[in-house]
Amino acid sequence: MLDLIEKIAENLQKDPLNYRIYKDLYSVAKEALKTDKELGLKWLKWISERLNDLIPSLAKTDLPLARNFFSLHKQVLHAAAKDDFDSYLLYIEWNREPSKKFYAPRRKILKAVVDELQALADDALDLLAISLPPGVGKTTLAIFFLTWLAGKIPDKPMLTGSHSNSFVRGVYDECLRIFDKNGEYLWHDVFPYVDVCSTNAKDCRIDLGDPKRFETLEFTSIGTGNAGLYRAATLLYCDDLVSGIEVALSKERLDKLWQTYTTDLRQRKIGDKCKELHIATRWSVHDVIGRLESEYSNNPRAKFIVIPALDANDESNFDYAYGVGFSTKVYHEQRDIMDDASWRALYMNEPIEREGLVYDEDELRRYFDLPSTAPDGILAVCDTKDKGTDFAVLPVGYCYGNDYYIEDVICDNGLPDTVDARLIGILLKNKVHQCRFESNSAGGRVAEKVQKEVKKQGGITHITTKFTTANKETKIIVNSAWVKEHCLFRDKSLYKRSSDYGRFMDMLCTYTMAGKNKHDDVPDAMAMFAEFIQGLAGAEVRIIQRPY
Question: Contact at 8 Å (CB) between 410 and 383?
């Protein structure tokens, strides 16, 4: 069978718009499903992607051929839909208006999530947790997943749990809409021999196939006493178990939620093959997903997906077609009106604990303008970029008595040569008098290069290096009090969140003693700055004019 498929595919390379060859390849791939499902699906998906790319351009140049390919594409998706979740999503919405479809406009982003849901269904994973911002379609995608699994495995129960009865009732109603034979979805085309045999709107239960004690789809709110009433043999699906910020801000309530989840929902799983799916907007490192990640982070059969609202270029990840997503502008406006911790938790899925924050933005000293007199000195430190995801951080402090105004910063994780050039530029621009570089694996090399170039360009900065072996976390915490007392930072109205200064302040104000920190480069640099300044305190420092 493989030889035949490859021969047909070779013919397509010679004649890539030949409808008859595509039709032959479809027929052979569909037949292969009977004996080699993996092979058949591979080529059906290959055909689907090729047709998806061809049809839009052909619609402008050869409409009859485009119509033939359009019809064939539907047949291909139908053949694969029972076993391939991506094909299922595209097929059951085939008859809907393009602007009303859920999956097609969102596929570019959500396909990565769909692939992991496929892995969960194929027994490549036991646990999958998906963290996405509010309103981007994560729950709707899970509803489609439930209806797909229900058609594939109608005789085993699945349990859905959430924080409220109103939520689970909404999921129940939406599942029934998808199952409706007279509705707009083509679910019954994919599973023609499976019917809804009973429903229970009061208890939110839907049974498919033969009647049984524990229905195919069961829905409940967490903490309502589920012992003996529900079972999960195929899937336990938990959606937004944290009801809101009141719970998220209380460690005690999060502890209780975790206990309820482990004793109320998770205890309903039966058998060794029951999978677990968690989908949520993140609130806290102590929420259920956070604790599961701590428990299973090294388990190859557990996967934790995070897609933030904004990408590395500060652009929206969810600007879907037909205006059903969120533009970069909308996310930027939302970010501007939220506090950093809430924005990072809800939209960037980087939850932190406010109780453990080392630098709360409300307690930092701020300024609008530098004092009108000349500074006593201009000093800086540099925590150089070490590994790929690290940031090079260089804060410049203007000294006025015992106060240090952090007037300019570099906070950049770009290519080393680009970052080095920026380090040179900030020292020259601010006419920094002294700068200390941390002498780590890269620091000494960078310091030497920067000093040489600064002198070459007529700069006055004297650069020193210092090797540090201190525990980084301890160094950050013990120096934080000095930073809060002596350092002033620009007012928030004077910088953009996407700027170096904005990144610098975000990283400073989200460093926590509770849970993990994605980046500690900025608080570490400020600890270096504190130690550098305090080390100078024992000597008299005078800035004099150069004699040459």
Answer: no
Helix (H) or strand (E) holding 121: helix 103-121
Q: 436-453 burial, b for 16+ CB within 10 Å, e for fewer?
A: bbbbbebbeebbebbbeb
Q: pTM for this structure?
A: 0.74
Local confidence pLDDT in tens for the 548 residues of the chain: 777 887 887 887 888 888 899 899 999 999 999 899 999 999 999 999 999 999 988 888 999 998 999 999 999 999 999 999 999 999 999 999 988 999 999 999 999 999 999 999 999 999 999 999 999 999 999 999 999 999 999 999 999 988 888 888 999 999 999 999 999 999 999 999 999 999 999 889 999 999 998 999 999 887 666 555 788 999 999 998 887 777 766 778 888 888 888 888 888 888 888 999 999 888 777 889 988 988 898 899 999 999 999 998 889 999 998 888 999 999 999 988 887 778 888 899 887 666 678 888 888 999 999 999 999 999 999 988 766 668 899 999 999 999 999 999 999 988 888 999 999 999 999 999 999 998 666 667 889 999 999 999 999 999 998 877 667 888 888 899 999 999 999 998 999 888 999 989 988 988 887 666 777 889 999 999 999 999 886 544 455 454 44
CATH architecture of the domain covering 98-351: 3-Layer(aba) Sandwich (3.40)
Same fold, 98-351 and 361-536: no
- Choose the CATH number for 361-536 among 1.20.120.160, 3.40.50.12780, 3.30.420.240, 3.40.50.1360: 3.30.420.240
**Domain boundaries in the chain?**
1-81, 98-351, 361-536
Other beta carbons within 10 Å of 464? 13
Q: Which residue from 289, 268, 172, 276 is spatially nearest to 222, judged by alpha carbons?
A: 268
